[in-house]
Amino acid sequence: MNDKQIVGEKAVEFVKDGMVLGLGTGSTVQYTIQKLGELVKEGLNIKGIPTSIQTERLAKEVGIPITNFSEIQRIDLAIDGADEVNPNLELIKGGGGALLREKIIAKAAKKFIVVADPSKMVMKLGQFRLPVEVIQFGMEMTEKQIRELGLIPEIRLNETSPFVTDNGNFIFDCSIPDNVESEIIEQELNMIPGVVENGLFVGITDLVITLDQQKKVILLSK
Ligand code: 5RP
Question: Which of 51, 84, 93 gets mutated to test ligand 1 (max ligand atoms within 8 A of its CB)?
Fold first, then answer.
């Protein structure tokens, strides 16, 4: 079993019968979703709200019933991966381009669990460039204002044309200068009119599932 599979599968231990689950996106949480599919076949009763079209496809393939915000009153638990996790359990997310739906679902959930192999654990966020989702209209102006905050944005490409999110938007991957407070940047970015959301997840995570140096599962909470 690889590291992603170990932490991804561990997360199912926090799932209880009857729960509504936020289903994250990426190559780590896919193991959670596959395992949940096995448990559903054995009789586990859950519903999932996917954070991306890709995850919706996988969840359907493995037999997890899908729901949406118009059908449910609550999300009991959301499980997702991350690109970076710092010791305060703050995250950079959005490497897979699903950050907007991921943040909506993580914030709506009563509990948010992150599955992260040890390569994701960092002392300081920012080695991984911060994804910022922007609407296509006026993106040149939006880019200029992101630069004015001190970040260095670069449009994400899908081969030669811009990568388009599930919401029809573009993404700027942004280098973060050393002297910038992540919490401040999270708020300031979202005040720029063309920015829809950014991949900084501050004060949302309840639990991180990762591995220690001996490859033993460890649970980190605040
Ligand atoms: C997608 C994400 C993913 O959770 C993040 O990129 C981690 O992905 P992986 O588990 O494939 O390393 O934020 O938008």
Answer: 93
Numbered ranges of CATH 3.40.50.1360 in the chain? 3-121+202-220
Residue 92's pLDDT is what?
Answer: 97
Instruction: Measure 17 CA to ligand 1 centroid, in angstroms.
Output: 26
Question: What fold characterizes domain 3-121+202-220?
Answer: Rossmann fold (3.40.50)
158-to-96, 165, 170, 203, 214 alpha-carbon distances in Å: 12, 11, 11, 31, 37
The reply to whether 102 belongs to the active site is yes
Average pLDDT score over the chain: 96
Q: What is the pLDDT of residues 100-142, one digit of tens each?
A: 999 999 999 999 999 999 999 999 999 999 999 999 999 999 9
d(CA 67, CA 80): 17
For residue 27, the ligand 1 atom closest to its alpha carbon is 11
Residue written as tokens 């449910």? 72
pLDDT value for 90 = 95
Q: Ligand 1 center to residue 28 CA distance, Å? A: 7
- At 58 the pLDDT is 98
